[in-house]
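User: Hey, quick favor. My workstation is busy. Could you predict this chain's structure for me?
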Amino acid sequence: MKYAIGIDLGTSGTKTVLFDQNGKVIASKTIEYPMYQPKNGYAEQDPADWYNAAVNTCKAVVEASGVDNADICGVGISGQMHGLVMLDENNSVIRRSIIWCDQRTAKEVEQMNELVGREKLIEITANPALTGWTAAKILWVRNNEPDNYARCRHILLPKDYVRFMFTGEYATEVSDASGMQLLDVPKRQWSEEICGKLGIDMFMLAKVYESCDVTGYITEEAAKLTGLKAGTPVVGGAGDNAAAAVGTGVVKDGKAFTTIGTSGVVFAHTSAPCIDPKGRVHTCCAAVPGAWHIMGVTQGAGLSLKWFRDNFCNAEKETARYMGVDEYYLMDKQADTVPIGAERLIYMPYLMGERTPHLDPDARGVFFGLSAMHTKKHMLRAVMEGVAYSLRDCVEICREMDINVSDMMACGGGGSSPLWRQMLADLYNCPVKTASSKEGPALGAAILAFVGAGVYKSVPEAAEVVGVDKVCEPVKENVPVYEGFYRLYTKLYPAMKDSFAQLASL
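Assistant: No problem, here it is.
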C-alpha cells in the first residue's frame, strides 16, 4: 500500500492529512495561526507560521500513523491563493505576507487598468484587475515600500513558500499562478506582455509546473523536521478551490461543485479556456493538465445565515444546547415548515457587496416583500433561498458561456444542509450530490501527489477514489415555482443599483 500527504494551507490554519492510495484517511492534524490587521482593510500573515504549521502537522501525522515513511510516495500542497511572499537575496522573508482578503490596493487596480487596459487584462489573465489578487499587491509594495521592493529577489505564493522551505526550489503551478494576474491563462505560462507593462521582473517569479508534476524533493533538513523521508517527491499541488475540485471528483467536463462557506462558490470544470468578456466569473487553469475552471463567487452565502443566526436565533441556540444538536439543524427544520417563496418574501444576500454577477462593492442586503404576516421562520427561509438564488446567478453565467454544469457536487458547511441541497437541486434543475470524503483540498493535494509518484496515470483516474455519499434529485413540481421567484429576484438588483450607490455616498 502506498500513502501520500496532503497539506491544506488555509487562512485560519494548516491541516495535514495522510491518505492511503484509496483515499482513506490514516491520520490528520491541524494547527491554527493568527491573521494581522494593522489597518482597516488590511490582512497579513507571517509565512513562518505557515512553515512551522506545515512542519509540525507533517511530523504529527507521520508519527501518529505508524506508517513507514518509505511508503509515503509523495506530498501535495493546497493553499490559500493570491498571497504575496517576498524573499531577499538570502531567501529571508522581507515583510509579512499580504493575503487574499486584503483590500488596500484600489489605486493599484486603477494603475493596472491604465498600464495594461481592462480588456487586455481579461484577454490574457482571464480576469479583470482585482484588489485581492497578487499583481496589485506587488505594485502596492513598490509604490508604498520602495526599500522592501528593492530588496526583493523572489516572489512566491503562500503554499509555494512552504514548498521552497521543504525542497529548496522556487516553483509554483498553474492553478495558483492563475490568481496572480501575471499568468497567460490560456497559454499556461507567465505573460511577458503583462509583466512588461507592469514593470515586474519575470526573473523574480517561480518556475511554473502542472499541478501533478514533481517540483522538487524533501531535503535532508526538512526530513529531520517533518519525519518524511529525504528525497520524497513534492508535486505542484493547487490553489484551494482547484484542489477541492480534485478532492470532490470535479475533474471532467460536465462536473461542477457548489460550496456554501462564508462566501459561496460555483466551480465548473472545462477542457477549453472559456473567458467571460464582462469579467463576472474567474477563469483559471485547473489542477488537471490541459484543463481550466470557471468560478463564480457570491460574497455573503453562509455569512448571511450566520448573521441571521447570531442576531435572531438565540432561542434556537439555547434549544440546540439542551437537545445536544447543532443550531443549524433546528434552523433547517424551522425553514422547512415554510413554503417555497417564503410567502412572497425575497432576500438579497449582499451583506458584503457582491462579486458574481454584479461586481458591486456598494450592493447591500435587502428583504423585499416584508409584510406583517411574516415571522422569523419566513425570514430564515428567505435567507436560505436568497443565497440559493445568488448561486443560481453563477450557474446561469456558466450556462451562458456554454459550460456544462449538469453533474453538481455540494460541499462546505452549507452543503451539509438537506434543505439547502434541495433548494439548489430545484433551482439548478439537476441532481446535487455530496462526496463520501469531507477532506476536499487536502485529499485533492494528495491525489495530485499519487499521480506525480506514478501510483495513478492521470488526475481523472486517481479522482475515481472519491465516492458519492448522498444524491438529492430536483422535485419536478418545485422547479417552476422556484423559477418564478428567481426571475423576480434577478430584477431587483438592476432596480436598486443606483440606490445602492447613493446610499454608499451618504
